[in-house]
Amino acid sequence: xxxxxxxxxxxxxxxxxxxxxxxxxxxxxxxxxxxxxxxxxxxxxxxxxxxxxxxxxxxxxxxxxxxxxxxxxxxxxxxxxxxxxxxxxxxxxxxxxxxxxxxxxxxxxxxxxxxxxxxxxxxxxxxxxxxxxxxxxxxxxxxxxxxxxxxxxxxxxxxxxxxxxxxxxxxxxxxxxxxxxxxxxxxxxxxxxxxxxxxxxxxxxxxxxxxxxxxxxxxxxxxxxxxxxxxxxxxxxxxxxxxxxxxxxxxxxxxxxxxxxxxxxxxxxxxxxxxxxxxxxxxxxxxxxxxxxxxxxxxxxxxxxxxxxxxxxxxxxxxxxxxxxxxxxxx
Length: 331
Ligand SMILES: Nc1nc2c(c(=O)[nH]1)N[C@H]1C(S)=C(S)[C@@H](COP(=O)(O)O)O[C@H]1N2
Ligand SMILES: [Mo]
Description:
Blueprint: E1 34-38, E2 44-46, H1 48-53, E3 57-64, E4 88-97, H2 98-105, E5 113-124, E6 127-136, H3 137-140, E7 146-151, E8 154-155, E9 165-167, E10 180-186, H4 193-196, E11 200-201, E12 210-211, E13 218-221, E14 226-227, E15 234-236, E16 239-248, E17 254-261, E18 264-267, E19 269-270, E20 280-288, E21 291-301, E22 324-330
Parallel strand pairs: 1-10, 15-22
Antiparallel strand pairs: 1-2, 3-4, 4-7, 5-6, 5-10, 7-8, 7-9, 11-12, 13-16, 14-15, 16-20, 17-18, 17-21, 19-20, 21-22
The structure holds ligand MTE and molybdenum atom.
């Protein structure tokens, strides 16, 4: 998502970021079925019409790829998407709540996790696989976890998971399984590739690491002024300038955003919140003086989580929420 698109409270679909491990599957919606099985008393099979006939919920949710910021980490660059800070977006997801469906299927007493399986298939780490991820049962039973069939008022586009995807508000992108076709209740921790190998925060190659789950806080600004075509360096006129941006955290609501000029920080003004799971707008006034400056912003959430000036390197290049720096030239 180009950062100027931070201006929209809900990201227009064509400006929303995308992350797709394999090929986008081609799905005939008339033949599509979602199965709910594994350790349940009453396995279910649902068509798209069955899902649409259930009570509908719409929720604005900010999603961010766990690899956002990867290319800005110090040290050797992990081989994966070289994101700067643009792997984020907010959509109005419409679908039906997962929890009542799981309750109807009736997880048995030994149930611990729920595995979500996509229709996309490929090779990764030398293993042929489908994209699959699990959630702890209590997380899957949260009332705001959705089986979404619409994004911003229209059916999901193929690249965003048509005809059905999971939405897990507050979690990094990898949890939101697209092209969702199977839900399996299990008793043991799921050890599929995307759970046990990928998406773990590992300090070095010998570190078994911690699984990534919730999004750490981040604030980003719309870079002010005009970009230079090849370098993206920015130029603006001297005088009063209103800098705008958005901030989010999957751990707790945003508490403060600060705006920094050449290392001196001042509180930014927060807009009204747009629901628990959507990013929060902010703005700051800046009296731009001629010369070169570095603008930055940083968020803090109500759980006290903050952003580091510079994040430490990690093997997968995940969760780099180091503060954004925008060098500008004031003419
Ligand atoms: N089936 C499937 N689901 C998936 C993926 C995928 O490759 N296959 N990518 C995940 C990752 S890593 C991210 S960041 C989000 C991106 O969702 P979006 O492309 O709709 O923004 O989808 C997640 N769900
Ligand atoms: Mo991702």
